[in-house]
Amino acid sequence: MMAANAIIQVANLSKAFGENEVLRDITVDVAPREVLVVIGPSGSGKSTFLRCLNLLEQPSGGEIVIDGKPLLAKGTDIVAMRAELGMVFQQFNLFPHLKVLDNITLGPVRIRKWPVAKAREKAMELLRKVGLEDKAEVYPASLSGGQAQRVAIARALAMEPKIMLFDEPTSALDPEMVGEVLAVMKQLAKEGMTMVVVTHEMGFAREVGDRVLFMEQGRIVEQGPPEALFERPQQERTKAFLSKVL
Amino acid sequence: MDFRFDIIEDYFPLLMRGTLYTICISLASIVIGSILGLGVGLGKMSRFWFLRWPMQSYINFFRGTPLLVQIFIVHFALVPLFYGKTNAIAAGVIALSLNAAAYTAEIYRAGIQSIDKGQTEAALSIGMTPWQAMRFVVLPQAIKRMIPAFGNEFIVLLKDSSLLTFITVPEIMYWSNAMKNQYIRVWEPFLTAALIYFILTYTLNKLLVWLERKVQA
C-alpha cells in the first residue's frame, strides 16, 4: 500500500484518549500534488487524523512518514517537520496582538531567519494572492471571518510548506464568506500544492479533490475519486451519510 | 491637640531619603520577583512532576506564611548562611522578591492559561518550539491581561516593604519610628508616613490605569 513516491504515508495509525478510541488502524498515502479531501460525520476522527499529521495530537500507535522522514521515530526533529506542513484552523487562530503583515512574517523571520525586508516582501506577495494587500497594516480583530481565514492561509504559506493541512477551514464562516476562502484553496490546488482538507463542503470535495476519503467512528470506510464516491458509493454507511449532506 | 509641623520639617530630609529607599527596594523586588515568578509559574504548569512539585511547594510556603517571618528567616538565617554576615537591604530585597515570586507565579499561570489553546497550536504549526510559542505568541497576549493583577501585587509589595523596618532597613517607616522615639510624639510621625505611602500607591495606581489603557488601545 505504501507507494514509494507518496509524500505522506500513514500506516496503522491509531489514537485513543483514555478508553475512547478516536482513530483505528488508519492507513493512507498521499501523492505529491494530490488534494485529499476527508469527509465524515462529526466525531468521526477526521480532525484528529489531520492533527496527528503534524503531531498536534500524539498518535497512540502506527507510523507516519512525511517526505521520507518517519515522524514518530526517536530523533526526528518534530519542530522542523512542522515548518514543512502548513496548517489552517477552523477558528483561524490569527495572532491578535500582531498586525496582519506581522502575523505572516513572524514565522519566516523567527524560524527561517529571513531578513525582515525579504519576509515583508514575501508577505505582501501572499496578501496580494489572497486579495488582501490593503489589510497589511490592520489588526486581525478588524477582519471579517473570510478575510481572517485568507490571512491564516497566507501565514501558513509564508513558511513555504510542502504540504497544506486544512481543518474545516470554512466551518466557522458565515455562508457568504465561504466562497472567498474556497477560491483561494482552489487556486492553491491548481498550483500543485499537496493538500489534505477536512471539510463539510461537498461541492469543494467534488470539484477540487483528487480523492475523497470517508471516515466514520475512527475508521476509513471508503475512498476514491470524487465522482465515484459521490455517484456510486459502495458502502451502506457512505450512502447513509451522503444522503444526509448532499 | 497641637500638631507639630516643625518636627516633620525636621525629619523631612530623612523621610525623603527613606522614601527613596522604599521606592528602590520595591522596584528591585518587583522586577526580580516577576522574573523569578515567571520561572516558578512555568514550572508549576510543567508536565514534569519534578518541576511541578517543588514550584507548588514554593508557592504554598510563601503564600502560607507571614511575610514578616520570611523577612526574619532571610535576614537572620539565610543571608548569614551564605555570606557569614547579614545585610539588611539585601535581605529585604531578597525576602520581598521571593515573596513576590510566589504571588506573580500565580498571576502568570492564570494569564497564560487564559490564552486560547489555538494560539499555541497555530504557533507550533508554523514551526515554533514550545518556548518560541510562549515567547512570541502567548506571553505578549497574556501580559496585557496580567497588568491589573501585577499592579495590585506591586501596590501590596510597596506597602509591605514597611515591614523591613523590623530589620533596620532605613525606609519610610524606619524614620517615622525614629521620629517617634526622639520626640515621643505619635500622630506626626505615623500620619506623615501614611501620607507618603498613600501618595506613592495613589501615583502608582494612576500610572497603572494609564498603562492599561495604553496597552488596550
UniProtKB/TrEMBL annotation, chain B:
Belongs to the binding-protein-dependent transport system permease family. HisMQ subfamily. The keyword Transit peptide does not apply. InterPro entries: AA_ABC_transptr_permease_3TM, ArtM/GltK/GlnP/TcyL/YhdX-like, MetI-like, MetI-like_sf. Keywords: Amino-acid transport, Cell membrane, Membrane, Transmembrane, Transmembrane helix, Transport. Residues 19-208 form the ABC transmembrane type-1 domain. It is a multi-pass membrane protein. It is found in: Cell membrane. This is ABC transporter permease subunit. It comes from the Bacteria. SUPFAM superfamilies: MetI-like. It holds the Pfam family BPD_transp_1. The chain crosses the membrane at residues 20-43, 64-83, 190-211. Its main location: membrane.
